[in-house]
Amino acid sequence: MSNGPLPTRLIFLSDLPSCSHGEKVRFLGCVSQYDPTTGTLCLDHAYPASSANAAVTAAVDVNLLLETLKCTDTQVGEWVNVMGYVQGVEVEKGGKKTKAVRRGEGKEASEVKVVKLQAVMLWSAGAIKVWEYEKALDLRKKAEVMAK
Question: Is the separation of the CB atoms in 109 and 52 below 8 Å?
Answer without folding.
Answer: yes
